[in-house]
């Protein structure tokens, strides 16, 4: 990757939304909706303490991966875009450096069900492939999180992996999971078809 997210011109705009890198001042708002049961149900942790949440999320390597989604002047959700190395044999590792991204997305419950995740993730893939020149984008979800995998499928991502009861939910249940991915060429092809 020669172009880095910090080199891009922000915000990125869609028909209804603006997407921009998060700053520390955004974290209390993110905490507010991550705490809601409909959201934390599907996240790795249920944040209980604002200070602890901010302390962790403000770490530069994490904060740099968070992007705020705004509708007008309202912060309605956030995206995650973590640039990763692809697996490679040692001799060609340099060529695999920073060639893919893992993405994630959250829309605050008050704004859910209005197509905002579909719209924001479509733009995030465009940023990954067109602006950053990445070759592959991946995302994971629990199989029961239907809204999440529908977002990935709408964005043109392919279900690549199915795991059987590999993930322990805080309810105590072992849940199935899905891994999705899309290659730059597939994404370009999906735009013309
Ligand atoms: C997943 C999430 C981002 C979807 O946001 P959203 O703005 O409501 O989604 P959209 O309105 O763009 O709809 C996306 C798709 O999911 C479907 N969908 C939305 N809510 C749904 C629900 N509760 N159950 C089933 N499908 C649902 C929509 O019908 C749409 O599918 P389609 O385009 O094939 O018709 C949001 O529900 C959320 O933040 N959930 C909690 C956090 C989370 O799960 N993040 C992903 C972790 S892997």
UniProtKB/TrEMBL annotation:
The protein's name in its UniProt record: GNAT family N-acetyltransferase
Start and end residues of each N-acetyltransferase domain: 17-185
A Pfam match: Acetyltransf_3
InterPro entries for this protein: Acyl_CoA_acyltransferase (IPR016181), GNAT_dom (IPR000182), N-acetyltransferase (IPR051531)
PANTHER family, alphabetized: GNAT FAMILY, PUTATIVE (AFU_ORTHOLOGUE AFUA_3G00765)-RELATED-RELATED, N-ACETYLTRANSFERASE DOMAIN-CONTAINING PROTEIN
């Amino acid at each position: 990757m020669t172009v880095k997210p910090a080199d891009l011109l922000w915000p990125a705009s869609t028909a209804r939304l603006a997407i921009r890198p998060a700053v520390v001042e955004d974290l209390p708002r993110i905490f507010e909706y991550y705490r809601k049961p409909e959201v934390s149900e599907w996240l790795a942790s249920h944040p209980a303490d604002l200070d602890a949440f901010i302390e962790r999320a403000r770490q530069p390597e994490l904060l740099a991966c968070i992007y705020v989604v705004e509708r007008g002047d309202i912060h309605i959700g956030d995206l995650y875009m973590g640039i990763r190395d692809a697996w490679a044999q040692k001799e060609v590792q340099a060529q695999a450096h920073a060639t893919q991204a893992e993405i994630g997305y959250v829309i605050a419950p008050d704004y859910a069900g209005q197509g905002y995740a579909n719209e924001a993730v479509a733009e995030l893939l465009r940023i990954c492939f067109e602006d950053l020149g990445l070759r592959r984008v991946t995302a994971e979800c629990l199989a029961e999180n239907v809204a999440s995998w529908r977002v990935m499928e709408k964005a043109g991502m392919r279900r690549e992996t199915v795991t059987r009861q590999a993930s322990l939910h805080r309810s105590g249940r072992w849940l199935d999971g899905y891994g999705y991915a899309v290659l730059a060429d597939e994404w370009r092809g999906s735009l013309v078809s």
